[in-house]
Structure formats: structure tokens, C-alpha cells
Design goal:
heterotrimer, A alpha/beta (131), B alpha/beta (313), C alpha/beta (558), B: 313 residues, alpha/beta, Rossmann fold, seven-stranded parallel β-sheet, 8 strands, 13% strand, C: alpha/beta, TIM Barrel, nine-stranded parallel β-sheet, 23 helices, 9 strands, 51% helix, globular
Chain lengths: 131, 313, 558
């Protein structure tokens, strides 16, 4: 059996800073994962629809504009509505430490801020992806 | 019938996606499900699209899908990108060009890595085409990795193969000549608003004149500007004409037969590889044989015969 | 510049020194790195001597400040005569809050204003548009109409202080807000001064806040050149930017090559429209990054000035003011860390020093909390003080271009210029700037450079203090900016009232006239101004242009 970890890397909202998302995408690829990049300006519906069609194991959200409490939560709530309980959701970008517990409560299992080594993200995914 | 299979037939996206994953991963559960849905396949028109990177394939596919949707057809899109031979991972970025279709219920897009398969396709693509077909899609478009002369497997799976070129890629037509250019049922010169368009069309046209002399059908050469949705309707008409032509000269079934043959071979190949390498039973035998080959005590042919002998018993 | 015999002697002496002292020393104690490579992957030698710049012609290639080719500076007296403008980029929440911040900064000694807009504004959406959900005021101030602009600059003397606005897709409209506000305050069009960023090429390449496809965007930009040169003489209608290209991960050479290349492209488009180069080129300005490598950055600015001067001359300019490159600089946001944020002050100081010695006309220094949130008052004050200390206490401005003549700096300047032309050859072969953008050339170069840099950090080949080395386990303890939570509601209500109270027939008529102008080929600025004056919102005006021009979609390039 040939199983690959499939990851959706998404940029919700209007934020156009994609340097980090692209680097993480490459790092995940180099770690043997199949990475689907959604591109910019995604709504929660678009992200979840893509996650369904691509049957991903992980959804990675990248945001540097400060709108994460609204937009990340939109995604996890929509995923819950669609019954997607087996997908690991992680996030990154400019996210103040005090928002992290709130995000975790909403289903974003890992938050990776500036300075996180790519390997840390890879390891987290490998460890926490639902079999 | 299995619950998942019946959901796939009803067109449920979650179930379609799940079954595709099972097939892609060569999961033991996949075979039974594929058997369940197989009687419901055969209706979808399979279109293969290939061409060099930068020819605008993804945008063209997006516009084609939109046009088909206007005509009330349901569309499945399979976008294939190369898997890294070093890491086994892949960057699948074709979806980006299709954001407009993201929320259309009548469109299903799946990105696949080649996962080591050569020829421009992915090993499970035959299964995915069947799954999308059975789920009710009228059109299934397969976008391949089309960078050179070796990536021509798309003809095995497609009823109609489009080869997309763009003006200004230098002498790319010359380099593409042997191989990809020959497989086209329709040529598309995309980004036709670029300088050099007439020259490119002329080059392709002269290729057509030579290769189609004496044949029943002259491969049409169309121009499009996909990002402005110019020429897409004409392209859809031409694709439809091609199917009618195949049916008229009674070659449609022959073409399909090629696909079934490729599909059959692929299933057998995977099963064999599974039997030999994935199941634990032969692991010791193979290790032992590899040691012997390294010490030149046994040659690879004899080793292969021993392995095959064991599984054929 | 050097005597041939002297050079020979120097070369021999250097060889002697290397054999007798240098190699012996590094055999006993190897150098800290196997190869010293700068951020642009140029190998840097142990020592530079006159041999490295043997072909340098002082009069032709180096020259004097204020004279072609402007290598040593664009004005004869440079910072001895007038310091650079201290212009801190600022904006958050609603216009009221940002207005307060502007007053604070002016009070503390900044000499020019710089507006940061929030994402909806950058994309031409009003605060109440569905795409604006969650984004109001988060990374800049929300400006949805002329009314917001009025509040933003309330009690601020815009006839005496210049304003730079970082806006690109809808730049023409936001500029319209500023012009209309000035007019309403009785300040004439030929008095107001400032800059609009208005550089769409780098949006496609790096910053990604584009709206329309390339051709109509270029048309709008040339419209602003034309309008500005006729009616707003003190305004810089473009700030051709490398900052964002660098932030996206490019090297210094790429920043230099892509930015100046973009500049040339704009000039060519304007000339194609029929504008006379000397009529608009003096009002083109630039915007560079100031990253960590002190000397590379200084060489970069010098090279930029000389390349621009040469190229503009080639394109037929006769007025020296067309050939001199004025630029604003911002220290590198991407180099600052979330860990031990206080030490970012040190990074910013080095970077600011590079910009000053490099001859910048205007400077923004980042705040230490850059990687955490928008600047708190304390953090931005320290950032401003950094500039003031350099200006008043370091004495680097006592002489012009102090590193001129340094063997290393002159060699590096020449090297970066050469590599720029090499990049331009590649772009030419790809069919020019727009074609190269479409083919993803720039984006790929940048993504590769960004990945290489990150790998070096992850593999511990490059140290980032506090991140992969010298870490501490303490929690971060600095004040973080908090915004008014009622701001979004206030803004939405304000918009609602605006739409009710204005003359909607007039708005409709003006929008319709703008649509016709956009469909034709007239200069759109006057029509935009009419819309603005009648209080059409940013979103409404932009929608007209979206309808006519369409929206741009990019491919995924890693």
C-alpha cells in the first residue's frame, strides 16, 4: 500500500504574503508529502471544498494580516459542519501568543509563528496526522 | 452494494474523494468498490490535455469546464503533476488556476502526483477516470505532465487528446515534434494574443499537412486566448466533432479498447508488484536473492524466474 | 585611476602578504566559514585592494554628488544640506485612531507622513464588503471614502508636510481622495506634496495586492503620470519598489535588478503613450529595502543610482532631474524576529545606517514588535529615535558618500551593476518584463532564493540570533498594540449614513461617466475625481473598473 500524507496549504482572506506558505509547501514536499496549494484569496467555503475533493489529511492555513481569529475559525467551523473530523488543522503567520489557546479550542491543533523551523512543522504533522 | 460505492454513484463529493484515495493508495478495499461501480462507467467523454509548462493548460481547462457547465454538463478534472523522485512528495498547484470553479457543485477537481509512474500520467488515473465517470460526470478532463517526448501516455486514456502550444516558445515546436506533437487529435495554440502567433499556427499546420496526408481526418488547429475565454466554445465544438467522427468510422470502441488494455495491464502490474514486494511472504527470498546477485552467485534472470515461480504456483 | 606600475607592485605585495602571513594564519586557525558568501551568493574575499577596481574611472564612473551619474548622491550637499525625511509608515483601525498616531509621530519629530491601509482598502473593497470579513483595520487604516480621508488628516497641515501612501491596485482612487480633501480644505493642487506607491509590476511579482490585469493597470498608472505632471507638480506619482520583492525573499541583486527594471518598463510605457520623458521622469521615485548586510546594501543603492542615470539618459532624457534617482528606504521587516524582540532595535539600527550612508532621501525604521503586531507607541518612538541618533549623534552625515573610494565598496557596486545587466538580458530573452512576469520568471527566482535562505537557517548554516542560536526561554514581555474593538462597527455605520445622505443620483451619473471613460481611452483621473467628490465609495468606484478591466489571477509558482 502506498500511502502519502496529503496537505492543503491555503491562504484565507485578502492577505497576499505567500513567502512562508510557499516555503512550507516545499518543505512538506521535500518530506514526502503531496501538497495542494490553493492560491490566494480563499474563502472558508473554497478551502473546505478543496479539502473535501482532495481528501486531504491536513489543512494548513497561513495568515499574516491579523484576521486569523475570524478567518481560521470560519474554516474549522465550516469543516465541523461538513463532518470533517479526521483532518488535522494547523496554522501559521503573525499570530499573537495570547490568541493561540483560543485557536486551539476552535480546532487549530498547531500554530507555527515566525522563526519556526520547517522541520518542526513536518514532525508535528507526521506525529499528529490521523491514520 | 457497499454504502460508499452507492454514495459515489449518487455523486457525493466526500465519497468520490475517499474512493479515489483508496485507489491511489492501492488499498485492498479499493478493488471491491471499483468492481461495484464499474457497470456504471463508459458514458463520460475523456479528454486528455497536454503541453509544455507555461502553455496555459490549467487556465484552458478552467475555461473549457465553464463552457461545458454552460451546456449543462457535469465535469471532472484530474490534474497531474510530477512526484519528486528524491522525496516522493509533490507540489500540486494546478488548482490555483481553477479557483472560479471551486464552489460549482457540478465540477470535481482532483490533484494527483505521478508517484513514480513515467509517461505523464499517474498509475491510479484509470481508476479515477472510472470513478468520476460512474459518479455522473459527462466530461472528464485529464491534465498531464507534458514536458517532453516521453510523456505521451495520455493517448492511452483519452478519447480526445489536445496538445497545447504557445507562440514565442522559440523552437519548441521543433523539439516537441517527435512524440507529443504526433498524439494530438486537436492542436490548440493558446495565448494566441502573443506575438509570433501566425508563425506558430503555420508551423503546426505544416506538421498537420505532412502527417495527415491521405488520412480521413485532418487534425484541426485552433487558436485560443484562455484567460480571456476566447476560442473555448469553438474548441468544445471541435472536441464534440471528434467523438462523432470516431463513432462514424467505428473507431471509438477501438480507442476505448486501448484504454481498457492499458488499465488491465496496470492493474495486473500493481497486483504483481504487491504480491512480490509488499506482502511479507517473499521478503526473505528477495533479500537472499539480492545477496546472491551481489556476490555474483546468481544472475538477475534466474532470480526473477525463482520469484515468479513462487507466486505463480 | 591607478598607475599601472603601482598596481603591479600592489598585486605582488598582496600575493606576498597572503603567502607569508595570511595562509600561515588560516592554517593554524581556519577561518570561521569555508566560503564567505553574501546574501546574493557573491563570494566575498578576505581583502580588497586597488587591483580590484583597477579600471575605475573616477570622473566618468564615480563623479560628484548631484552630477551624472549620481553615484555618490543625487544632490550636491546631500545630508549636509538637508537630512533625509523621517517618515514612519503607520495606520491601523479606523481613521480616528490613525489620525492620533500621526499627530503623535509628528510631535516626536517625524518629518513626513506615510499611510498604511488595511487589506480591504488595498484591494478596493469597502469595509462592509463580504471579502472584508475579519480584515478591517488589522494591518492598516480603513479608508472607504473621501469622508474617511477627511478624518484621517484632520488638523494635520498637509500644505506643509508631505504624505506617502502605500496603495497600488486602487492607487488612482485613493490619490483622488487625498487631492479632493486638500481641495475641500482650500489647499491648492500645486502645493500638496507626497507619493503614491502605484507600482503594479511589483504586485504581480511580490506583494500580490493587484486588482486588474497588467495592461489596464499600466494604463491607469500612466494616467496618473500624465495628470500629476500637469496638475500636481509636487507629487511623486509612483514609488517603484524593491522593498516587497526583497521581503518576498529575493537577494539584494535581484531586488536591484527587478526594481530598476520595473522602472525602465514604466518609462517605456509612458513614452509609448506620447509623454515626453523630461515631463514625468523627475517625479518618478523609488523604494528600497535595507537588509542586514551593511556594505552590500550601501553598494546596492549606489549601483541603483548609476544604472538609472545611464538608462534614463539612453532613453533620451536631457534634464538631469530626470536621471537622478530619489528613493525612500524601509528597514527589512522580514529580518526581525518574534523571539527576544528588543534586539530587533539593534538590527534596525544597522539597517538604517546602511540606508543613510547609502544616500536615502527618506527613511522608515521598523519597530521592535514587527513580528508580533502593529507598532505600539513606545516601539515606534524608539524606531524614530534610532533615526534621530544616527542623524544627530553618529556624524556619518558630516561628509557625502563616506565609503566612496573604498576598494570593497567600489568593487561591490560595479559587481552588482554587472549582475543587474545579466538579469536584464535574461528578461529580454523571455520577451520583456510583462512576459517574464507571466512566465513566472521573477516569482521563481524569488521563491528559490527564499527557500535557499530558509534552508540555510534550518540547517544552522546561517545564524539568526535568538531563533536558531542564543535562544532564551523567557516569555516575550513587551506592550502589544491593542485596537479599538468598536472601530469596525463605527466604520460600517458611517458608511451606511454616507450612502444615505449623499446625492445618489450624482454618484450614479459620475460612476457611469467613469465607466465610459474606462471603456474608451481617455485619462481616467478627472472622472475618478468627480466620483470621489460626490462621495462615491472606494468599493463602488473600484467595482466599475473591475467590471470593465476584469480581475487578475496568478498561477502557483514555488
Amino acid at each position: 500500500m502506498e500511502r502519502k500524507i496529503r496537505v492543503l496549504v491555503a491562504k484565507p482572506g485578502l492577505d497576499g504574503h505567500d513567502r512562508g506558505a510557499k516555503i512550507v509547501a516545499r518543505a512538506l514536499r521535500d518530506a514526502g508529502m503531496e501538497v495542494i496549494y490553493t492560491g490566494l484569496h480563499q474563502t472558508a467555503e473554497m478551502i473546505v471544498e478543496a479539502a473535501i475533493q482532495e481528501d486531504v489529511d491536513v489543512v494548513g492555513l497561513s495568515l499574516l494580516s491579523g484576521a486569523h481569529m475570524t478567518l481560521f475559525v470560519d474554516v474549522t467551523r465550516f469543516m465541523k459542519k461538513k463532518g470533517m473530523t479526521n483532518v488535522l488543522v494547523v496554522g501559521g503567520g503573525i499570530i499573537p501568543k495570547e490568541d493561540v489557546p483560543k485557536l486551539k479550542k476552535e480546532g487549530i491543533c498547531g500554530v507555527f509563528g515566525p522563526g519556526t523551523p520547517c522541520e518542526e512543522i513536518v514532525d508535528f504533522i507526521k506525529k499528529n496526522v490521523k491514520k | 452494494m457497499n454504502d460508499l460505492a452507492s454514495k459515489v454513484l449518487k455523486g457525493d463529493p466526500r465519497s468520490i474523494a475517499r474512493l479515489i484515495t483508496l485507489a491511489e493508495n492501492n488499498d485492498p478495499k479499493a478493488a471491491k468498490l471499483m468492481k461495484n461501480i464499474y457497470p456504471f462507467t463508459g458514458k463520460a467523454h475523456v479528454i486528455g490535455i497536454t503541453g509544455v509548462m507555461g502553455s496555459g493548460k490549467s487556465t484552458l481547462i478552467c475555461e473549457l469546464a465553464r463552457e461545458y457547465r454552460k451546456q449543462g454538463k457535469k465535469v471532472g478534472i484530474i490534474a497531474i503533476d510530477p512526484t519528486s523522485p528524491f522525496s516522493g512528495g509533490a507540489l500540486l498547484g494546478d488548482r490555483v488556476r481553477m479557483t472560479d470553479l471551486a464552489l460549482d457543485e457540478g465540477v470535481f477537481i482532483r490533484s494527483m502526483g505521478t508517484r513514480g509512474m513515467l509517461g505523464g500520467l499517474a498509475s491510479a488515473v484509470y481508476d479515477v477516470v472510472e470513478i468520476l465517470d460512474a459518479s455522473g460526470k459527462d466530461i472528464v478532463m485529464v491534465e498531464t505532465v507534458g514536458v517532453g517526448q516521453a510523456e505521451v501516455d495520455v493517448i492511452k486514456i483519452a478519447d480526445t487528446t489536445l496538445v497545447v502550444v504557445v507562440p514565442g516558445l522559440g523552437d519548441s515546436i521543433q523539439t516537441l515534434k517527435a512524440g507529443i506533437m504526433e498524439i494530438a487529435d486537436i492542436y490548440v495554440v493558446n495565448k494566441a494574443d502573443r506575438p509570433g502567433m501566425e508563425q506558430t499556427v503555420a508551423e503546426v499546420q505544416s506538421l498537420v499537412d505532412i502527417s495527415c496526408s491521405g488520412k480521413d481526418r485532418k487534425t484541426p488547429v485552433l487558436t485560443t486566448v484562455a484567460k480571456e475565454n476566447k476560442g473555448t466554445k469553438e474548441l468544445v465544438d471541435e472536441i464534440n466533432k471528434h467523438i462523432l467522427f470516431l463513432k462514424k468510422i467505428k473507431q471509438f470502441e477501438d480507442k476505448r479498447r486501448l484504454r481498457y488494455e492499458a488499465e488491465l495491464v496496470e492493474i495486473i502490474r500493481k497486483r504483481l508488484m504487491n504480491l512480490i514486494f509488499d506482502e511479507k511472504k517473499l521478503e526473505d527470498t528477495i533479500e537472499r536473492l539480492l545477496d546472491q546477485i551481489s556476490r555474483k552467485e546468481v544472475d538477475p534472470y534466474t532470480a526473477a524466474e525463482e520469484i515468479l515461480g513462487k507466486i505463480l504456483k | 585611476m591607478f598607475d599601472k606600475k603601482e598596481l603591479e607592485k600592489i598585486k605582488q605585495e598582496k600575493d606576498k602578504w597572503e603567502k607569508e602571513s595570511y595562509f600561515k594564519t588560516i592554517k593554524k586557525q581556519p577561518e570561521r566559514k569555508e566560503k564567505f558568501e553574501n546574501l546574493s551568493s557573491n563570494e566575498i574575499k578576505n581583502l580588497y585592494t586597488p587591483s580590484d577596481i583597477s579600471n575605475l574611472d573616477y570622473i566618468k564612473n564615480v563623479g560628484f554628488p548631484g552630477d551624472y551619474p549620481f553615484l555618490r548622491g543625487v544632490y550636491p550637499s546631500m545630508h549636509r544640506g538637508r537630512l533625509w525625511t523621517m517618515r514612519q509608515f503607520a495606520g491601523f483601525g479606523s481613521a480616528e485612531e490613525t489620525n492620533q498616531r500621526y499627530k503623535y509621530l509628528l510631535e516626536h519629530g517625524e518629518t513626513g507622513l506615510s499611510v498604511a491601509f488595511d487589506y480591504p482598502t488595498l484591494y478596493g473593497y469597502d469595509t462592509d464588503h463580504p471579502m472584508s470579513r475579519g480584515e478591517f483595520g488589522k494591518c492598516g487604516v480603513a479608508v472607504s471614502s473621501l469622508q474617511d480621508m477627511e478624518i484621517l488628516f484632520k488638523d494635520i497641515p498637509i500644505d506643509k508636510v508631505t504624505t506617502s501612501m502605500t496603495i497600488n491596485g486602487p492607487a488612482a482612487i485613493v490619490w483622488g481622495f487625498y487631492i479632493a480633501n486638500a481641495e475641500n480644505r482650500g489647499i491648492s493642487k500645486d502645493v500638496i506634496g507626497g507619493t503614491i506607491q502605484n507600482d503594479i509590476l511589483k504586485e504581480y511579482i511580490a506583494q500580490k495586492s493587484y486588482i486588474f490585469p497588467p495592461e489596464p493597470s499600466m494604463r491607469l498608472i500612466v494616467d496618473t503620470f500624465e495628470y500629476g505632471s500637469k496638475y500636481i507638480p509636487r507629487w511623486n506619482t509612483i514609488s517603484i519598489s524593491g522593498y516587497h520583492i526583497r521581503e518576498a525573499g529575493s537577494t539584494a541583486v535581484q531586488e536591484l535588478a527587478f526594481t530598476v527594471g520595473d522602472g525602465i518598463e514604466y518609462v517605456k510605457w509612458a513614452i509609448k503613450r506620447g509623454l515626453k520623458i523630461d515631463n514625468f521622469a523627475p517625479r518618478l521615485s523609488f523604494f528600497f529595502n535595507a537588509h542586514n548586510d551593511l556594505f552590500e546594501e550601501i553598494a546596492k543603492y549606489r549601483a541603483a543610482r548609476r544604472i538609472w542615470a545611464k538608462e534614463i539618459k539612453k532613453l533620451g532624457a536631457k534634464n538631469p532631474r530626470s536621471m537622478l534617482m530619489r528613493f525612500h528606504t524601509q528597514t527589512a521587516g522580514c529580518s526581525l524576529t518574534a523571539q527576544q524582540p528588543e534586539i530587533n532595535i539593534v538590527r534596525v539600527t544597522i539597517q538604517a545606517l546602511a540606508a543613510v550612508i547609502g544616500g536615502t532621501q527618506s527613511l522608515h525604521t521598523n519597530s521592535m514588535d514587527e513580528a508580533l503586531a502593529l507598532p505600539s507607541e513606545k516601539a515606534v518612538r524608539i524606531a524614530l529615535r534610532t533615526q534621530q541618533i544616527i542623524a544627530e549623534e553618529s556624524d556619518v552625515t558630516d561628509t557625502i558618500d563616506p565609503l566612496g573610494g573604498s576598494y570593497y565598496i567600489e568593487w561591490l557596486t560595479d559587481e552588482m551593476e554587472e549582475q543587474t545587466y545579466k538579469y536584464w538580458d535574461r528578461v529580454e530573452k523571455l520577451g520583456g518584463v510583462l512576459s517574464a512576469i507571466e512566465k513566472g520568471f521573477y516569482q521563481r527566482e524569488i521563491a528559490n532564493a527564499a527557500y535557499k535562505y530558509q534552508k540555510e537557517i534550518d540547517d544552522n548554516k546561517r545564524t539568526i540570533v535568538g531563533v536558531n542560536n542564543y535562544q532564551i526561554d523567557e516569555p516575550v514581555d513587551i506592550p502589544i498594540l491593542k485596537m479599538d474593538e468598536k472601530g469596525e462597527e463605527r466604520q460600517i455605520n458611517r458608511l451606511k449614513k454616507l450612502r444615505e445622505n449623499r446625492d445618489n443620483n450624482k454618484v450614479m451619473r459620475n460612476l457611469e461617466r467613469l465607466r465610459k471613460a474606462a471603456e474608451g481611452d481617455e485619462n481616467m483621473m478627472p472622472f475618478i475625481l468627480d466620483c470621489v467628490h460626490s462621495y462615491a465609495t472606494l468599493g463602488e468606484t473600484c467595482q466599475v473598473l473591475r467590471d470593465v478591466f476584469g480581475e487578475y489571477e496568478e498561477a502557483a509558482i514555488y
